[in-house]
Predict the 3D structure of the following.
Amino acid sequence: MPTLETEVLVIGGGSTGAGVARDAAMRGFATALVERGDLATGTTGRFHGLLHSGGRYAVKDPVAARECVVENEILRRTAADCIEDTGGLFVSTQWDDPGFGDEFLKGCRATGVPVEEVSVAETLRQEPRLDPGISRAFAVPDASLDPWKLVSACTRSATEHGARILPYHRVLDLDLRDGKVVGARVNNEQNGEELQIRAEVVINASGAWAGQIASLAGCLVAVLPGKGIMIAMNHRLVNTVVNRCKPPSDGDIIVPIRTVSVIGTTDTRVADPDELEVTQAEIDEMLDEGEKLVPGFRKARALRVWAGARPLYTPDEVADTRDVSRTHTVLDHAKRDGVGGFITITGGKTTTYRLMAEHAVDAACEKLGVDRPCTTHEEPLPGSEDERFYWLGARVRAQEPVPGSEEIICECELITRRGLIEAIARRRPTGLDDVRRRVRLAMGPCQGGFCIYRATGILHAFEHLDHQAANAALVDFLQERWKGVQPILYGDQLRQARLDDWIFQGLLAVGHLPE
Amino acid sequence: MNEARPRLAPASYDAVVIGAGLAGLTAALRLAEEGQRVAVLAKGVGATHLAPATIDVLGYDDGPVDSPARALPEFANANPQHPYRRLSINLIRASLDWFKSRLCDHGYRGGLDQNFLVPTAVGVAKPTALVPETMAAADLRQGGRFLFVGFRGLKDFFPAYLADNLARAPLPGGASVTTRVAELSPPLGLARDVSAAGFARRFEQADFRESVLVELGRHLMPGEIVGFPAVLGLDRAREVWQELEIRLGHPVFEVPTLPPSVPGLRLYETMTGALRREGARLVVGTTVAGAEGSGNRLEGVVAHNAGRPLTYRANSFVLATGGFASGGLQLDSSGKVREPVFDLPVAGLPGPDEPRFEQGYFDEHAISRAGVAVDASSRPIDSEGAPVYENLHAVGATLGGAVPWREASGNGLSLASGYAAASAILEVTS
């Protein structure tokens, strides 16, 4: 069996794992990261895209709020290219107690969240689709954060510092020797080959799956996966992050991110983070809550629904997962369970991913008996060196000098043939869904109706795929897409889906591809 | 809409057709050529622009269908709600014959007895009953050696992917197909992103054709049949196609690709041109939203255009607004399905607690067969089976009971049902 020697092995390729790998590599550790699927496909790629100001936690979870305040400010400097500076609003709708606004202001001031009450008239000028019946509004520095860009930038930086990033490598076993974790046996999910990794410290950054990984070393870590559903709407119903000004609940945030806006979320305790069913009742709840913020929400086109599993760490049983603090926990299993060489980092949220990574690598340093300071709060991520936020018009701007001078493969998201091929070449994708996350292929209103045939043709030619691999890429994409679109197919989006059926099943007859 | 403004004086016709897809245009043209004064009211162009302009009558049942004529009786028995259950083989045959003679400039070939097998843009050998002459040389039933031509700058056609699949397509009688590919770089000037219609316009220019012919000549091997993306001209497709065949000395055909469909544009232009010549009025860009009538007789429909409602009166009406894809049926976020023009009853819906869709994309979904149910005279019926209006007929994808994109039956259903509705109207009139 091939063997890989490293100092730090990170398990999990979400924002935390990618952050840990980058931090460890920047501190000079030989580092490897394994992820069972593509990067950012667990919880990170399934969140609403909100970079918290801390406002959401200001009243109920001051520790989490303070962390958000600090990390928000750090990420704006170091991860600007992954952030759109939309700003955020907390608004009291007709259904909310306007008195909560005072509590909210008090909480923000106590935790350091920059906040300012703005007039209803000014708020409605800024966001004219909001229900004109709102009674109060507060501006905070919320923003939207592109999770795929973030993880991609972290792993790129980690690689530049010598780390090995291994997506599609599933952990089969942790190797224990004399009460110490000394490595892991992993399976390359693409070719089925096993790989032995030897490491001095293994950092379990698998989030909602942390309990499963920890159990491989005989440690009990109680992670409650808290399911949250989100629905992407076909355009930006708001251009500012809009939160309801009330105690956190379901369907009370709308985040404008890239070409769409996302409403979220719910919080339901589930047994298995891989079994996240979306029910019609949950969808209806999102739509009804959306209607309270943006009247006519139910008539807008819903593009896709998905669910993510928050990693809520709790040493004790709790009834409501929303009552668990959103801050994170570092577990040194030597102190806790008598298992050496093994650290678990869990809980937390994407906004504080960098701090989580810092704390996890600090713990690794302590284990290894070295003192190497963290620099991720100062060192910008690749692409963010000039501290410029990304903006919605960037792709249009790139096309403007000579319209028609490049082939646009995905019209919804303005992806050029060149951009698509670069994305394919940079990280050889396993399928079109991987390409989707890299460049937002097929994330727009037609959900791949036009670009997926083109992307299949380009992938087939560029990667010299045989017909079976190309067909699998096409068919798998259609099936994966269907999971996210079928629960919310109505109105004009059903019309769009039916056009897509005509293209794929009628015109192309994809259901009859040869074996 | 400003209802306070005075209404325009009503317009009067023998027949009003709502919708300008193949079904609506067929009904309208049949009525107009029999001397009826016809108006076609359409919100926009129809699904002709989306479909490949082949007439698929029945391509797939359990597997590929060789002969629609032989398969249809059993198919209709197995699918009692299907529109083909009502439409006799003779009527379907008559509609195909009528279509071929009306569209004689397109040189449609084939019939009900034997399906062609033609390649789709992903290289599936797809059964279809009628093809325009520009697609006939694609017939795969006898096998053959094929060269597929792609163009730099055309993102809607990938000949290498097509060729890879087609070489492995299962064909009847063990016919075998070999495939090759030629990627050409014709002169596009500064343009890098040219649509199929853009290529079609260029193909109508002699110097563009010349450069394609010269470049392609270097690739051809004896005995090869040459497949192009369906971009060989708009108004002058026959001329372009014939010139390519003659100059290359090889059979040439077109492969339909992503919408907007160039062959569909040609079909639409020919049919609407014929309609105008028959004296019919075509109003595109108008929304029909309301009916006037007494009892179960429809007297007029109210169309909204240019900001003012206008009533179109007629003796008979044809609803050809399509299914969910065209807005002829609508599903709202609470799960309610509506036919928006006349609020007709919609049949074939899953129950309130039943899922509308299955988990597998390629599964058959419960809602797919939803649509308007009609009687033997193509008139929409209520749950009791009685016609909602004695003089309203429904055609095409508005009808329930079919899954046309799976069955490869779309244009066949539109053509036959449009033809049948016109026949029913003409029968009453005479």
Summary: The two ends of chain B are 39 Å apart (CA to CA).
